[in-house]
């Protein structure tokens, strides 16, 4: 590794200074002596010169230790090391030290990928993924038509045992998705468990650009409209209003809104969609660490008059819970399914001058009645556990059937 001094100088004077948390590194006595000497000499003077508080992580003592760690890695580590990888590890490590799974550092490349995703574009295989509650294995919950996943023969209901040879049982959903996604033209190897198969299925899928719709719509018997929202991205509002207009144009008498497996998304987007449904009043409010309250309201001009049933489950999180919580608090619809995930906090992406960014948890959110559902979730009005065997073997969605039953009762009582 060349130019180490200039590299670490750039760290302290650049856009973000951070500490790398390292455990289990053995320092040779001579290197440790070098560190001990460097930390006791000129530290206070250097901190004053750099304008950095001695209580800050980004002080001269930390920079000296980072330099020693890099020298030690360069001297003893078996493999070659890329400086940019080490630098990113510094930034990742600082944010990861918060112990918050929702706070993340993004390089400029990762930020661009995130922005593409919120616009309904990403590079992957074209499958929706959830976590199976019984096995803790990722399950393909849906396959987008015309995508590599469909072309490779993957099916909704398939369980992922390994991704590129690594077992994925027990991983967070975001970790699994990051392993599946990748650069266009690259291949990912999936080891699949399929109902009825006597052995694992080994499937190679070539990643490519996928334009993922976040809203699906259809009409069911009896004038019941069905709209599924898979995520709240910047494109979702237009897709939802179009789907709602199509349902109404087809003679919709009542709406089933499916938020199952929806992990959330953009706060402004879910509030805009709530304004297509809710009466006048509060949608949600947030409070930051200083107690500052921000309110998101609805003027009620587009309040939905048709009966409403909302499907939820343990995969309904964050923005999904904002919408479901408001529907429940106002009593304008019936929630059917199982208790939601329980993510009652809000993140903000803060852009940095070099094109990178950091996402931090900045506030709690509360439903209109003042409920914070973090790590609690929202209980449905009518509990209906999902029968995965019936769904993946026979195509029977018992939760949707229950929602249809309730909607028919609502429509019958109005006649």
UniProtKB/TrEMBL annotation:
Q: Which InterPro entries match?
A: ClpP/crotonase-like_dom_sf, CtpA/B_N, PDZ, PDZ_6, PDZ_sf, Peptidase_S41A, Tail-specific_protease
Start and end of every PDZ domain?
111-181
- EC numbers listed for it are 3.4.21.102
Q: Which GO terms describe its biological process?
A: proteolysis; signal transduction
User: A Pfam family matched by this chain, by name?
Assistant: PDZ_6
Q: Which UniProt keywords apply?
A: Hydrolase, Membrane, Protease, Serine protease, Transmembrane, Transmembrane helix
Q: Which PROSITE patterns match?
A: PDZ (PS50106)
Q: Where are the transmembrane segments?
A: 7-32
A Gene Ontology cellular-component term = outer membrane-bounded periplasmic space
Give the Gene Ontology MF terms in alphabetical order. Answer: serine-type endopeptidase activity
What protein family is recorded? Belongs to the peptidase S41A family.
Question: What is this protein's record name?
Answer: Carboxy-terminal processing protease CtpB
Q: Which organism is it from?
A: Eisenbergiella tayi
Recorded name of the encoding gene: ctpB
């Amino acid at each position: 590794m060349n130019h180490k001094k200039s590299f670490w100088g750039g760290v302290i004077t650049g856009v973000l200074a951070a500490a790398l948390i390292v455990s289990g590194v053995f320092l040779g006595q001579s290197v440790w002596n070098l560190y001990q000497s460097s930390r006791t000499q000129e530290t206070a003077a250097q901190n004053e010169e750099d304008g950095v508080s001695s209580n800050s992580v980004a002080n001269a003592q930390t920079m000296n230790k980072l330099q020693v760690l890099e020298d030690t890695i360069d001297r003893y580590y078996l493999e070659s090391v890329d400086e940019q990888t080490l630098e990113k590890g510094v930034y990742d490590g600082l944010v990861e030290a918060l112990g918050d799974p929702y706070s993340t550092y993004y390089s400029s490349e990762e930020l661009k990928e995130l922005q593409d995703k919120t616009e309904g574009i990403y590079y992957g295989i074209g499958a929706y993924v959830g976590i199976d509650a019984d096995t803790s294995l990722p399950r393909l919950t849906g396959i987008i038509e015309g995508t590599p996943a469909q072309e490779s023969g993957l099916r909704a209901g398939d369980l992922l045992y390994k991704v590129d040879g690594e077992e994925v049982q027990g991983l967070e959903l975001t970790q699994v998705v990051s392993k599946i996604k990748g650069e266009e033209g690259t291949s990912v190897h999936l080891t699949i468990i399929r109902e009825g198969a006597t052995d694992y299925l080994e499937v190679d899928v070539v990643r490519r650009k996928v334009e993922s719709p976040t809203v699906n719509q259809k009409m069911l018997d009896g004038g019941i409209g069905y709209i599924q929202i898979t995520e709240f991205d910047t494109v979702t509002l237009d897709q939802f209003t179009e789907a709602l207009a199509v349902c109404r144009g087809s003679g919709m008498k009542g709406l089933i809104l499916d938020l199952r497996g929806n992990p959330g998304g953009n706060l402004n987007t879910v509030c805009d969609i709530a304004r297509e449904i809710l009466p006048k009043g509060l949608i949600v409010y947030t409070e930051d660490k200083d107690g500052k309250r921000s309110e998101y309201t609805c003027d009620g001009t587009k309040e939905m008059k048709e009966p409403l049933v909302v499907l939820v489950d343990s995969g309904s999180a964050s923005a999904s819970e904002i919408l479901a919580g408001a529907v429940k608090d106002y009593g304008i619809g019936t929630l059917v399914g199982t208790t939601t995930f329980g993510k009652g906090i809000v993140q903000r992406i803060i852009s940095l001058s070099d094109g990178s960014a950091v996402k931090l948890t900045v506030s709690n959110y509360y439903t209109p009645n003042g409920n914070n559902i973090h790590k609690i979730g929202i209980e449905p009005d009518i509990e209906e556990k999902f029968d995965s065997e019936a769904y993946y073997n026979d195509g029977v969605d018992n939760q949707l059937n229950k929602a249809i039953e309730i909607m028919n009762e609502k429509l019958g009582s109005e006649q």
